[in-house]
Design brief:
Number of helices: 3
Order of helices and strands: EEHHH
Number of strands: 2
Radius of gyration: 17 Å
Strand order of the largest sheet: 1-2
């Protein structure tokens, strides 16, 4: 751990023709939320998000090692702050994509009310 979170910097995802469909989750039970439409995202977008999460996962393992090696508390806290920031950036990407892809699609399909309600429920859990 070098005290820097620059390894988390990456450009925002862009849409690509290859797409992947999945269900979104709004709680920690891992039960899929029934949506009124399939959530479709580009393979490129999913790859970038998964890559970011993999780097975050590695960073968390590094923090665990720091704690096991009795690294100074300020150093550990700095690394935890870096992980928090990286997770916030991933959340922002997911939210941006949801708004531009899923909410826009629901609006066109005439079922925006359900999608907005689901988004509000997710944000209630996500935001402090």
């Amino acid at each position: 751990m070098n005290g820097s979170n620059s390894s988390f910097q990456e450009s925002s995802p862009t849409s690509q023709p290859d797409e992947h469909s999945h269900n979104h989750h709004t709680d920690h039970t891992h039960e899929p939320v029934k949506s009124v439409h399939p959530h479709v995202h580009s393979e490129e977008s999913l790859r970038k998000i998964v890559n970011r999460l993999s780097r975050i996962e590695g960073h968390v393992r590094g923090i665990k090692t720091m704690v096991q090696q009795s690294s100074p508390c300020p150093d550990v806290l700095l690394q935890i702050a870096a992980v928090r920031g990286a997770l916030d950036r991933v959340a922002r990407i997911v939210l941006d994509e949801h708004l531009t892809e899923c909410i826009a699609r629901a609006s066109k399909e005439g079922n925006i009310e359900i999608e907005i309600a689901q988004l509000k429920a997710a944000l209630d859990r996500f935001l402090p």
